[in-house]
Amino acid sequence: MSTQISVIIPAYNEEKNIKKCLQSLKAQTFPENNFEIILIDNNCQDKTVEIASSFKVRVIKEKKQGITYARIKGINNSLAPIVAFLDADSSVNPNWLDFIYQTLSKTPKLVGIGFEGNLEPKNRLVKIAESFLHWFYFINPVMPGYCFSFKKEVYFACGGFKPEVKFGEDVFISKKLKRFGKIMVKPGFVTTSSRRYLNFLSLINYAYKTIISFIAITLFDKSPVELKAFSKEKFQLNLLKNKNFPGNSLTGPEENN
Q1: Concatenated DSSP letters for 91-104?
Q2: Residue 106 counted as domain residue
Q3: What is the mean pLDDT of residues 76-89?
Q4: Would you say 238 and 225 are in contact if contact means Cβ atoms under 8 Å apart?
Q5: Residue 210 pLDDT greater than 60, yes or no
Q6: What is the dihedral of CA 133, 138, 143, 148, to 10 degrees?
Q7: What is the distance between the alpha carbons of residues 31 and 209, in angstroms, rounded to a whole number?
Q8: In CATH, what number is assigned to the domain containing residue 163?
């Protein structure tokens, strides 16, 4: 059996998390010769690439800053008929790839699988976020951006990611894939960082951007505004330009200063 799954990890300055992520992939029960790991270096300025290279994964540079550019670069360089995305601050159970392969290959009408993760570390706000997300995925199945997979032929048939959708690209691609088949959201299998939910301001920021983007993408197939993060003084809405959304795991250096 040749390469069946391409695991793509978009990364921007994830030296604290990438080792655990890759260790979980190297521990998969799915045969190692039947999947590849691609790390997309989205202009990392730390030791992310150095650490990843020690695991003998494919490292590909994407100079255009942003999560959507990184996802597109990964897909266009992937070898397998099934693509799986995993955030660099996430880790998966040993049977993750086995489940993806068996489920997608044996279910013709199923085009994608999202994985509802366990958020760590936990506090009261994180538990509230987990409850809300569980309700959200139950009401409207959307593949969570930190861990999802799909059939590549269906991805290209539906038109794929669009660079102008810079936040909520997981909602965008889920909506497009649903036109060709069903999407499943499966609890378990992945543990991901709760850093977006650990304090009240970051939780409000992320919820605000997520809800606005979800409505815009659902109704108009695009994100019509760039959402500036809340501060204690004010928040702003600006027309989409070339910057990334603050809080995105792949924000550019200017947003991290």
Answers
A1: EE-TTHHHHHHHHH
A2: yes
A3: 98
A4: yes
A5: yes
A6: 90
A7: 39
A8: 3.90.550.10
